[in-house]
Amino acid sequence: MPDFPKRDLKEYVDVGHSELENHLRTQNAQFQSVLEEAYAGRKLTDFLWLNIFGFAFHYLKSRFGPRHPYQFYPSGDDTGVYRMKADNETTFIALLSDWASDTPESDRVGAVVASHKPDYSIHLGDIYFVGAPSEVYDNFISPTASWPRGKWGNLVLSGNHEMYSNGAAFYKMLLPTMGVRVNPSDGSIYSVVEKPSGGSMIYEQKAGFFCLENDYWRVIGLDTGYTSVERPFVEILSPPDCHLRKEQVRWLKNQLHLENPDDRRGIVFLSHHPPFSAFRTAFPRPARQLRQLFGDFLRPVLWIWGHEHRLVGYQKREVAGLPVFGRCIGHGGMPVEIDLPKINTESILFYDQRRRKNLRRIGIGYNGFAGLKFDKETLNIEYRDVEDKVVVSERWTIDIQTGMVDKME
Ligand SMILES: [Fe+2]
């Protein structure tokens, strides 16, 4: 597959949330690349095929065609629950969200993450504009792609943009490049990037959700992307609510047992969509579903999400009865929004509103990522920007006697 030319961050300013507009933008980006290479005589034909027929075909197929079948665990002997590398040693996980824009900015964030040599790298979703095969390839797979591969593993969640093209490239192209290895000699499961050797096997990521855990913490990736889009007409009667599909709920119940009072590990949820927001429409239904799964053993959770292109930390609050410390890190690779919050402004603990530059006369902020360092009961989180400066750092702790996660001042 050819590498399409790098995109300019300007292309992403003011991108709307409709599938139609995002398909048009993908088509236009591909057309521009053909224009740059084509002979003059070919341009009209290329334009017709790529912009009109190509666009109409892909858009209609995506809007009216079936979504890629939902994938879930168990899948063979893969349960989707993996031990972090060498149990209980310090583990560094890099989280990037809304990063896959294939711009100089996303390259720079990728390079900064790579310089920290993450054990695991996790993308919280949204490949722009529509998660097309060329977009998956350019961001994650091409030899020049800047996805900062984790030494021990790479995992991805789906956002809404992957589903704008029915999720086919997400499931068929991207997941097989994310690796998980089982080491049968000691029963541990490790995620690695290397080729299999000795008696170990590589497990490809098989679903849009997973759990990485050690004796103190569980990092649980939730799939809210698959249910974030709906077919035309159906979406009017039943607007998408990002709910956890029954297969995922069954996995949470049967593999993770969140209600078990003997398992007091700290819970860190990851998802693309926000359960609440001070800025835009949020999606509380997954929180309601999770609340039920906790049963009588209710305890606070740390929940990190993307979707909104900004860095925000919220005060602890209840969402559908679930106590949540919420963090939004959707500032990975898109123009970062720095506008004022609209609602619940008092709920904000921190918000990176620094203006980096103007694009099309709109002030945009700093891209960045979150680095999570797990060290027994302690979890240090550093929110770093594209220049590798620490914007905010936090120290969390899990009381393994009670299962209570809290922030240390
Ligand atoms: Fe999104």
Automatic annotation (TrEMBL):
SUPFAM superfamilies: Metallo-dependent phosphatases. It comes from the Bacteria. Pfam families: Metallophos. Residues 94-310 form the Calcineurin-like phosphoesterase domain. One of its GO terms (molecular function) is hydrolase activity. InterPro entries: Calcineurin-like_PHP, Metallo-depent_PP-like. This is Metallophosphoesterase. It comes from Runella slithyformis (strain ATCC 29530 / DSM 19594 / LMG 11500 / NCIMB 11436 / LSU 4).
